[in-house]
Specification:
Number of helices: 9
Strand content: 15-25%
Distance between the termini: 60 Å
Length: 194
């Protein structure tokens, strides 16, 4: 009897998924955005603005601000925008995330143009981590590119992969460093000074 009930429940879930896919045209995986901050009120506001479209489309499930002890209005910006704030480091933010996919962004970085479709397509078909392409207006000269951070073009990674890398990484930057990634067609305007 329990087998019958569990199969029936599974069929109901599949029917709902099929109905949703027919309405939106695809299965839309959701992601949690994680932004590490420390006195980045202006940069955080700049990053949060283009994420609204992802929230409206149902792709961005939540935004988690991982604060390192800001003394400016960073926390007010995060709370006003409805972000969840954690202060226990990136490990706490990863564990608190509700989605299977995580998108790490630096404060001040902004997705530009049609960025949702390439992310959704990657999440639906791939398991490997990915990064945005630099937007045309923020492409650095060769010398500056050598000194850019590993997180300057964001990082899209599955939660289990991020948790596994936490053993050797204490920040989002360290999490992205040395990781083999796929380059997305979606573009990111990197944070000023990156």
């Amino acid at each position: 009897m329990n087998i019958f009930l569990s199969n029936k429940t599974e069929q109901s879930k599949n029917i709902f998924a099929l109905a949703w896919n027919s309405v939106v045209g695809y299965a839309s995986p959701m992601l949690s955005v994680i932004i590490e901050t420390a006195n980045h009120e202006e940069g955080l506001a700049r990053t949060l603005s283009p994420l609204v479209g992802g929230l409206v489309e149902g792709v961005v499930r939540e935004v988690i601000v991982c604060d390192g002890g800001s003394a400016d209005a960073t926390l007010k910006v995060a709370e006003h925008a409805g972000c969840r704030v954690v202060s226990g480091g990136v490990a706490e933010a990863i564990r608190a995330a509700k989605s299977d996919w995580l998108l790490f962004l630096e404060p001040g970085a902004r997705p530009v143009g049609d960025w949702l479709d390439p992310l959704v397509g990657h999440m639906a078909r791939q398991t490997m981590p990915a990064q945005f392409s630099r937007s045309r207006e923020s492409r650095p000269r060769l010398f500056a590119r050598v000194f850019s951070t590993a997180l300057s073009t964001g990082l899209l990674i599955r939660k289990p992969q991020a948790l596994a890398r936490l053993k050797s990484a204490t920040s989002a930057e360290a999490l992205a460093r040395g990781l083999a990634v796929k380059r997305l067609t979606a573009e990111l305007a990197v944070a000023p000074g990156r």
